[in-house]
Please model this.
Amino acid sequence: MACCVDGLDDTNEGRKPVTTTSAEPTRRDFLYIATASVGAVGVAAALVPLIAAMNPDASTIAAGAPIEVDLGPIAEGQVIKVFWRGKPIFVSHRTKKEIEEARSVNLASLPDPQPDDKRVKEGKPQWQVLIGICTHLGCIPIAHSGQYNGYFCPCHGSVYDTSGRIRSGPAPTNLPLPPYEFVSDSKIRIG
Model:
């Protein structure tokens, strides 16, 4: 009978080592898997707040989000002010007289000529939507004021008509129009 020393078989003349394999997991395999799992969970737990800190906060997202304005409560001849992206937006329900006056203006007499029908949505001339910031130095004009019963900036004297077009004063251009659309006959989405 042959004797084994240090895992070598004496009967084998080349003295090859005898190896054994086990199909069952060992305690060491369990420790490797457990350590790797805990490490992966720890890395994920550290990355989640780091990535979340890179996203804008809720107030920033809300400030740039589109807003919807219900036009139903706005009486004819009334101008309301809402805020979108921190800017005042004037929503005016113009009367037929205001629309006719705005359309009858000689465009050649305007510092920034633009026809009234290009400053409202087609088929909705009674609704005028403007960014309420004077184009001179950024003041907020007063609605239903001034020589043309439109908008008047008391800071430096710029006068706009009911279409928001500059008529006199230091402002170089008309009141800007925000991006907006009608989502129904009585509701608009600004932004």
Notes: The longest strand covers residues 87-93. The chain has a mean pLDDT of 87. The CA atoms of residues 45 and 151 lie 55 Å apart. The two ends are 93 Å apart (CA to CA).
